[in-house]
Design goal:
The protein contains seven helices and 18 strands. The protein has 316 residues and is of the alpha+beta class. The longest helix has 25 residues.
Amino acid sequence: MKKTALRGRFQRWFENRLPLTDNITLTQRTVYILPTRPGFMLGATLLLLLLASINYQLNLGYLLTFLLAGCALVGMHVCHGTLRGLAMNLLAVDAQFAGSSAIIGINLQSRRRSIRHGIGLTVLGSDQWVWTDVPAQGNATVHVAFKPERRGLHRVPTLSAETRFPLGTFRVWTVWRPAAQVLIYPAPEAVAPPLPAGEPRAGGATSTLPQSTGEADGVRAYRRGDPMKLIVWKKAAQTDELVSRDAQQVQRLELWLDLQCTGLADPERQLSRLCAWVLQAEKLELDYGLRLNGLEIKPANGQAHKSQCLQALALY
């Protein structure tokens, strides 16, 4: 336990020393190198070969020892150069729901005239590596996932990149601390109750359908792009004309999603239910508003309105 706690404290101290940046170009000062276990075994083998060659005066032993040592040194130089000079740029991170994996996009850019092989990226402390090659004077995009458990605004976790190319005897790595943040929405309730009852519209006004459609309220002429579920197929079969239900005209009441309507006491469960209701109302193409303590978002629908409501729930 003490060893784990000490390692955690050292890691936090080390991360806090790193600058916050969404774009980084790796240099000698930001790239670290150490032998791997096979590298240590190779070093021990070379030492034994050297001692045996000295003891028995084996010229071929000297040749083999120095040949292997030279290959190891060349491999160390190539391994370090695989990361050195590489530019890493963070792509925009989309908002996600709590408990789901958020995807971090990273663009790797190389100006070198040769391919950079075997570069892996991961969230620091995770063992889920994503490997790629970066073409000569080209780009490669890597996507790394992490799973935030709580809603709110989170900083993108610290990332690590490494390579062991070409021999696997050395590990070259870097640690990168992005400055970007990702918005995490509340996890929607798995089985949410039906939407709450609507409130009468201000002034009691209701929408009416133009008489040109020849139909009752809530039906209008078909518009290109209307969802199939809104088409009145019975009317289409009778008249050979497509008409659609007008969700905005059918909705005579204003739908307000309020903390008080959830019927729950736990604040996180309240937000989870409201999140599920927002998604449900948006799926039904209903106008809906959101009321939180001290915050009111007027009824509307669409992707922008949905994002505004979910963001309010995430930051509440």
